[in-house]
Amino acid sequence: MNKEKNSYILIYASVMVVLVALILAYTSEALRPQQAKNEAIDKMRQILASLNIPSTAQNAESLYNATITDTYLIDNEGNKSEGNAFETELAGELRKPLAERKYPVFEASIDGNKKHILALRGAGLWGPIWGFISLNEDNNTVYGVSFGHEGETPGLGAEINEPAFAKAFAGKKIFNNEGKFTSIAIVKPGKTVDGQDAVDGISGGTITSRGVDAMLYSSLEFYVPFLTRPQ
Description:
- 36% of the residues lie in helices and 22% in strands.
- It has helices at 6-50, 60-67, 90-93, 163-167, 206-227; strands at residues 68-74, 80-81, 103-110, 113-123, 128-135, 142-149, 185-187, 198-200.
- The strands form 2 sheets. It has a 6-stranded antiparallel β-sheet, sandwiched between helices. The protein has a two-stranded parallel ribbon with strand order 7-8.
- A hairpin with a 6-residue loop joins strand 5 and strand 6.
- The longest helix has 45 residues, at 6-50.
- The radius of gyration is 23 Å and the shape is globular.
């Protein structure tokens, strides 16, 4: 074949494109199990962080298995439902009709005391934000939280995943003294809200702070039937 002809160049280029595509597809498929494993480990670390348990990629799985005592899904009436809580993503559930949604619940034992860990999902300035919140056995008092984001501004909205912000939630209550669900307000530093526990927002991250405020209310509201059912 004459290598100077356009047909040769086109055939050569086509073959190279096919070969590269095959190599990329094979590599992607070969790495898929490890990618899934890494995502699972990251989720375990987020759940553990909501329980104030630091972890690494190396010890997260063993800590998770030692701490989490039960996992299950609940429906919008607070009843347990079939399914895998760990593999259920709240983002996908929120796109379903209300009657079809399932919400993941994780139970943990800390020093012999039960904690409920609930999933959170919302929107920040530049993309999704998410997290987990753990409640004490009274299903009201916050034990810990962890937050994550897709693309909030470093040094501003991205500060929601810093320990200093998370620590401010410990001891806050999501129901008021009359038993009404109020969530936790995110406010400008130094401000308060009547009849509602509050946490100072991120300086310079007003929109992200509002996103966290809205995420807490909307996500926790789904769990109210479960949290208020007779124990």
